[in-house]
């Protein structure tokens, strides 16, 4: 079984990111311990093993840490991105020189643990809504430098992505309205200045604001901090003319009620800003 | 009150990091919403406000996001790094052009939420050991690209730092021993190859291994996954000749018992790998 | 009159780009001629002067070349981005040390000539459609490294922007259909995988294809290489339900007829891929 | 037929440039359309085809866009740099995974269209002087970031290169004279400060200035904005002792008369600042 | 015989450094001479030959210059890092295209000459102390950008490394004491703020200072500018409780006497700040 | 007295180089010692003092290390680049916060010591030829990353610069002739391919080769490893028609005899490849 193909962005974006992470860990002098303690010709057989159950994300990205240090390692993926695994499952097997395997271990585990943690949490919440049409989406509350990867992990978890940044959609929030003089002038200014291929969403806090939004050329409304009951009314008012998004303080406990209100999307900042690390380890044997 | 001085690394390291985070958020086309909706000459008065209680870390780093977009903003720090604040506390006040404040908001909050989250969790655990000499230390289980900042947040939380990377101390772990042929040859190889100014620590899993380690020229022992009872015996065996570090599966519930066993350090991976975001918001008014 | 404010992206993106352009011109040894021939304390009074009529774009970006070499130059903008100027108009006046003015001259003129050339050509074509609702949009046929600036110049010229890149909207073209098995499966795959905030456009070459597209959940249709007559029929078929874009071989001579067919957008690759440089010069006097 | 060898600078300079162009097009999220619409295992057979007649330049550089995304593509060059092709000529054939071919298409065409446009225009003008010794040279009026490539395209077109930047030759222009106190002091300052291996050229606007230049230790004279008649007198005055260069407002219509005046070089800014894109397309079939 | 394995940092750190050195030498236009004079298909057989006796260091790093320009060169290492060679010894044989060999020559020789110069000087001084336990260590007086490589060359020469930078150990020098209020408060501040795994060294200029240092929790003392006689007393006072380092004005003539005083380390700034280049040449034949 | 103006390249090139050097020294965690031991509000008065006699070069570049860490330091230059100073001379006085002064010290001294060492050695050799027209020139045997600075130091020392890299002049050496089929075809190929503004030099080892070179269109001859007597004959043969350069094994002892042979240039690799560090120190007082 050969290493599966990696996506186009792999070499362009993710490999540089992992290279930077390795440089951060190796500093100026490299892996003092391994270089001193492990003979250059020592061989090893290592397994990346899940320590708990979860959804895997970022395995190929993590494996780049090993590949960057030694292009001759033999790496076989057993359960890659998107797999739901039980504790004890072997994700990949690595054979070759012992030194690069040991040196790359922590860098690989750090990225794999974080991304699989996001995918696992996303999959859990998405699973509770499997009979509904509502999608779970992530926000821009991501780790500096890791946004594209964290949004990828959300997709692997079955979630969907909201904006990747400030430049790919318009979202007019309450703070914008403070200085824009109200919803209508804000939307009109946006419509006049923004390209045809960009969607416009506005945040509304009340049903009155929603009523006004429905008279404006917007594509979506963010219904902020509304109760399920209010959301239900809002969805009825919208009547399918716009996309509806619920946001604000939604937890695993309340998400089902929010979804049942009929919104198209529920956005959850905690999917990416409060990540429980997925526990993965490197089981290592002399070979 | 003027902006307080920032550390030497601020301009060298942290500003580039924040610049990169802004670039990640702004993409090719910048903040479509703000540029379209907010007049160029609109002024604002904004406050960074804590939404919960905690220990602040990274405020100056976060403020760099605003400063990078507009050097003319007036920024006044009210409660900076190290402050313990209640919910509702204003951390900083920002006055000036509305556009850069809105554009930088999310980037600033992302870094401030993460670092203050680490400091808050660290302060909580350190607080439970205030009558003991044991120090809480973090590990290399950090976010790619953010290690130095996350370790700084741990220090702000009252914790201490273990290795910054693979190159500033030797830590001989179980996987190294697998290919090094045992504790003694591993330590001897390390001692022969490593500079005088570098400390050597070895991981031991049993008291037998500890007994062997005590015959070797090491500076510290990592006592891995030992019960408080075993740790107490280990500390007694060491008798102050070496530094002792407890590690492995230690939780807020068990940390006090581990510390009472008398170890010098307790290392906790979750301080940095499983961070609860600290909730901060930007309260924004037209000015 | 002071230097006007510059946009947020100025320091983040455009200054590095100009820095890179200066480095490209200065090489390893710098401006041999100026450093040898011009005394360090020589002062100059210089004017950036339009040599022909046109729409100015990129003046602040071009001025960064001077500012990067000498922060003490006094620069006064007379006619900035968006101004329509006659030949002989002074755009900016620069006073200060002679050396940096001479060294930055070519770098500044290269960027200003290119961006103003794009704005001028765009303004000319947009002017011919001023009584119609059709917008002129640019494409991804831009110069490597200059896309955001060239799209900015199109906006300054009164045009609008289509996609900034492959990641901010979906455009299913004929080549995609070759491997996707037809329009319907292509659109369905896209709809299933793409976030809610991203628009989907499909290219159609015939009215039959258009009829099929109208049954699918798309936001826009690109009507490729159609005659004005066919476009008129297409616009009638769409009936305002989708955005319509005409594309393919449209010239200044044919653009009016295409617009009169009633499409929402006309995309023109030549706005950015075949630029007539706008002639600007630096008039230089000893001071 | 195998891919021909690429020049030494290919990997050092041109590949990073193309990588940057891909990053500019791919943004944070990559090619949304292709990744959604085209199956990962779809194969394609694609041909880069000239849509008009011209001189090819930059084919290998353009092909780097494909190679960077997929090292397994099979690429066969049919007509590479320097070839004069008719409309419809296949330049290269690409076989392999459909996704990377589609994703790299625009980036590759943008660079190939620009460089072949320069080569084609240069070849046309050079062709009109084939019986004369005068060389066509380009200037520093190039696109920021692309100077070396654009100068390469000029060479492929049969032209020659003037200075690559401010650091590889001295060119004393009118603006320098304004602050240097005249031709003689300027040249003397230059000669005293510049290394032996660097040539010195001075710009002269009149035959009187030329007479003075002929008394000074310079290697070349730039005869600015002179009529063919005046140029003829200038060439006679120089008598082969210096290189002569004609510059300023020379068009395809006037270039032959200028060349017949006997100058060694004619420099044309428009070769690189006003480029007509060469039309190339990717013909794409499922395979 | 195949090319020996290269260290983990090779691809991460040293290849980028050599790439940068090549870029510095190639400028914008590349190797004008070779590209013009040498046919693209010319083959060569070249040998890197030592012109004097010495200890080789940096051979693999130097060879990266060739490999970066042409991955098809066949390179065979005869005497690699650590070898003691006589004048005339062939270090490596390179076969393949003539152009990349000629273009990379100077870049490769510059780095190999410098690093082997450091190794040779280190080996000479270390050789004079072979019967003593004292180690020769280098300092932070290194060339900007080359610190890790120069410290590597010292190790290849048989020396040891002191701090790699300001961040991997504490060294309290006289200038620190000026503002810290004396040795005791300085050490106490350091001990309170620095992680457990970091060693602390203090500089002392007199035996009185040494006596105070011996009462403080430090790991090492730097005995600055002391005579061998004073050093002997200092070593006796320390009695093995701390590491001892002699520093300050020690030359090849005095180093033996200093070592015989019994110190653990002698630090020599001139190992890296005043390097005699090791003479290596490329013997080149047509093939 | 204010800080004197710095050259245009200062901010573009030298500041990034010093920033990189600081990063190399500061690592991930910064200056552990200073940050721990020196209070944040401690002030200092420091002087950069020459410890020996010599010619200063690189002072402004070195001072960038201090400025990068603290823009509020007050720095007064007493003896800048080009000054000949005696031991004990104060070069610059720095007042302000103690921490940044201590942290930048070593980085500043490393660059100042190296560049002043080059200038001092160059000035010494140039001084011995003050009554002759021969110029001392440096080579491409420079430190990776520092070429432009080292060539600048040579100029400050009164020397002149040969090529800055492989791209700014043609130098046909013996190895090129091996594969080019002799001097004439090599020169003819070069002349045909190289721009008019680039000089061509050929290396000759014998007077016979020189005779051939004199029949070819070259600008300079490198007379390699010839005795003063042979050089004298060579200079006579050339008769001022070409530039003459002596090279190969020339030492301070032999340089006068070589110069008296009448060559235009003498190139010395050791000016930059074997540098004796100039001793500078930071005298530091509490303020």
The chain pair forming the largest interface, with residue counts per chain, is:
A-B, 75 and 75 residues
Assign an overall shape of chain A.
Answer: elongated
β-strand amount of chain A: 15-25%
CATH architecture of the largest domain in chain A: Alpha-Beta Barrel
The topology string of helices and strands of chain A comes to: HHEEHEEEHEHEEHHEHEHEHEHE
Nearest-integer average pLDDT of chain A? 94
Low-confidence stretches of chain A: 1-5
What structural class do you assign from the helix and strand content of chain A?
alpha/beta
In short:
The structure is a homohexamer. Chain A is an alpha/beta fold.
Blueprint (SSEs and pairs):
The structure is a homohexamer of 287-residue chains.
Chain A: H1 9-26, H2 32-37, E1 43-50, E2 54-55, H3 59-69, E3 74-77, E4 84-85, E5 90-97, H4 98-127, E6 135-138, H5 147-156, E7 160-161, E8 170-172, H6 174-180, H7 183-193, E9 200-204, H8 207-213, E10 220-224, H9 228-238, E11 243-247, H10 255-260, E12 265-267, H11 270-273, E13 280-286
Parallel strand pairs in A: 6-7, 6-12, 8-9, 9-10, 10-11, 11-12
Antiparallel strand pairs in A: 1-5, 1-13, 2-4, 3-5
